[in-house]
Amino acid sequence: MSTNKEKLKVAELFAGVGGFRLGLEKSNYEVVWSNQWEPLTKTQHASMVYEARFGAENHSNQDIATVPIEEIPDHDLLCGGFPCQDYSVATTLTNSKGLKGKKGVLWWTIHRILEEKKKKPRYLFLENVDRLLKSPAKQRGRDFAVMLQSLNDLGYAVEWRVINAAEYGMPQRRRRVFFIGYHKSTQLFSRLKSSDKQDWIFEEGTIADAFPVREEQNPVINHFELNNDLVKITKNFNKNGKISPFENTGVMIDGRVYTVKTYASYNGPYKVLGDILQNGEVTQDFFLSEEDKPKWEYLKGAKKELRTTKDGYQYNYSEGGMIYPDPLDNASRTIITGEGGKSPSRFKHVVESDRGLRRLTPVELERLNMFPENHTKLEGITDSKRAFFMGNALVVGIVERIGKSLYKKVF
């Protein structure tokens, strides 16, 4: 890494085991503060791994909602993969400074930092599951509209894209929405404002530079204004709409949304599940026992059967079969948090090896998310917990490429 270039200072929220940090620090970014807090467990396993890899200095293991703003140092970039929840705004509270969302909804902890920081971060880099663009079911896209409008109120423009890592040669089919925010004080905000929005989406934007999309002839870009009242958006946005107005790609600036469906453009090498396997290095406990194999086959297989609830109600249940074992000549299916442990499961990966059928190891799961090998290996951390970390993590290669693109555009 060149040391004569200016570094962008980063605050990493919902840090997990450090996926954003790993990707960004491959370019000229410096994490000056991080926070990881798991509310449902006494032992803070992810924070333990984070501190073991990056040190305890400037790392917070405290509920982010209770961290005083003055304890968070000034930074250029705020990043994090925040949990997907219901973002709905409750009401305008007469005894508050303005709008407050549901208590415990973590989007509003990001909002609080951006609202209360005297020196606001110039850039945002956030990640979420792609259903954010479509939730909730009765008001498709409302949650994303609330989020975009709240950022607009705080002086940010936003560009977003749903990226499937496998479509750009990475070894896992993991689809997530990534979005970049530009504060109105930045040159990038001004450039986006004066740009042809179609050109920005397809060529000029930070994400388009990192992850090219196909040139479409006469693409249909949907554009609309966000109502600038968050309570009205909460109550009325796309009420009874069957589909979300938000496509997989778009920008929002000054409350105006431009959104279009895009398709990946990539002609480089592809990694597949077979490329990441630890051939010959796997211990026996990862192999399926003979007694469990029928259960695995049943769970993975197609079903049409009559089932009965605890109350005695009978219903017809059906589901399609899954490819079993997982094919080695394609990118893997998405890793889930329940990937660890010996118990048979429909959703855990099973691969064929020269010694028989087996589950994936923690190192293989790390490789699928492009983490360093044994990044999560630590005394007191079980294999199941390591698998849980990777089910929650992001693909480091995506962060690395968007981070490089953003740095290049800032400087």
Keywords, please?
single chain, 411 residues, alpha/beta, Rossmann fold, 2 domains, 10-stranded mixed β-sheet
SSE blueprint:
Layout: E1 8-13, H1 19-24, E2 29-35, H2 45-54, E3 59-60, E4 77-81, E5 89-92, E6 99-101, H3 107-116, E7 123-129, H4 142-153, E8 156-164, E9 175-183, H5 187-194, H6 197-204, H7 206-210, E10 222-225, H8 230-236, E11 249-253, E12 256-260, H9 293-300, E13 303-308, E14 314-319, E15 350-353, E16 356-359, H10 362-368, H11 383-392, H12 396-410
Parallel strand pairs: 1-2, 1-4, 2-3, 4-7
Antiparallel strand pairs: 5-6, 7-9, 8-9, 8-11, 10-12, 11-12, 13-14, 15-16
Q: Mean pLDDT, as a whole number? A: 93
N- and C-termini, Cα separation: 16 Å
- Count of helical stretches: 12
Poorly predicted parts: 92-99
**Count of distinct strands:** 16
Summing up helix and strand content along with how strands pair, one would put the structural category as: alpha/beta
Radius of gyration: 22 Å
Topology as a string of helices (H) and strands (E): EHEHEEEEHEHEEHHHEHEEHEEEEHHH
Largest sheet: 10 strands, mixed
Indicate how many domains the architecture comprises: 2
